[in-house]
Amino acid sequence: MKKQYILVLSFGYAEDQALGVIPFTSKRRFASFKEAVVDLAAFFRSHYEGEPAETKKCCTATLQKDADAHYCSRCRTSLRKEEFNPDQFEDWLSRISGTTVDSYSADFVPYSSDPDWDVCDFEKACAPKANTRFVYQAEKVLCAAIGHSVHPDITLDTIFKARSGKSVSFW
Ligand SMILES: [Zn+2]
Predict the structure, then answer these.
(1) Beta strands in 14-158 (DSSP E)
(2) 78 CA from centroid of ligand 1 (Å)
(3) How confident is the model at residue 166 (pLDDT cuts 50, 70, 90)?
(4) Residues 149, 154, 134, CA angle at the centre, nearest 5°?
(5) What's the average model confidence in pLDDT over 118-131?
């Protein structure tokens, strides 16, 4: 049976561990804790990468003339799609721990009245029947959830196998 999840994210490790932890919840239902983590990671990644910019006519024309062009010959816009950098994504995720309500919607996920995932009250996360899970070193677990592990032998599967209880941590 699919369930709603509350994922309490804790960022960093050892002396770099953030003291604040943030619960996130989704109205959507998932078959497993792992599926919820993968969905939250995809949600953050989509906000990290942002909307793809619309291609202007002049840029399309440049690419038609030269498919390998790096810049538009007319407006000088870069025509190379920036490659996803998992290290920068990890840094971006780690910085969520230092946000306020204002800076979260300014720098991370713009305010939406019906977001896929949203910050949740602690009272809700601690309610007796809440389906709450802890994700330690969330920046690394969320990177692993989109297929970018720092160590090739530590994947999301191995993390979940090693920590099959109520919490999931990288080590
Ligand atoms: Zn152009």
Answers:
(1) 21-25, 118-119, 132-135
(2) 8
(3) low
(4) 85
(5) 93
The two three-digit tokens of residue 43, written as one number: 């949600």
The most distant pair of C-alpha atoms in the chain lies apart, rounded to whole Å, by 63
CA distances from 50 to 60, 63, 83 (A): 21, 23, 13
Contact assessment for residue 97 and residue 22, using Cβ atoms and an 8 Å cutoff:
yes
- Decide if 6 contacts 105 (C-beta within 8 A): no
Confidence at residue 50, expressed as pLDDT on a 0 to 100 scale: 84
pLDDT value for 171: 59
The CA-atom distances, in angstroms, between 95 and each of 11, 81, 104, 108, 116 are 9, 24, 10, 9, 20
Average confidence (pLDDT) over 115-120: 94
Could you tell me the distance, in angstroms and rounded to a whole number, from the CA of residue 87 to the centre of ligand 1? 30
Q: Report how far residue 57's alpha carbon sits from residue 90's, in angstroms, rounded to the nearest whole number.
A: 35
Question: How far apart (Å, rounded) are the C-alpha atoms in residues 90 and 125?
Answer: 25
pLDDT digits (tens, 9 = 90+) for 13-59: 989 999 999 999 999 999 999 999 999 999 999 999 987 777 889 99
In the reported structure, the alpha carbon of residue 77 is separated from the centroid of ligand 1 by a whole-number distance in angstroms of 6
Q: What is the DSSP letter of 167?
A: E
What's the rounded Cα separation, in Å, for the pair 44 and 12? 17
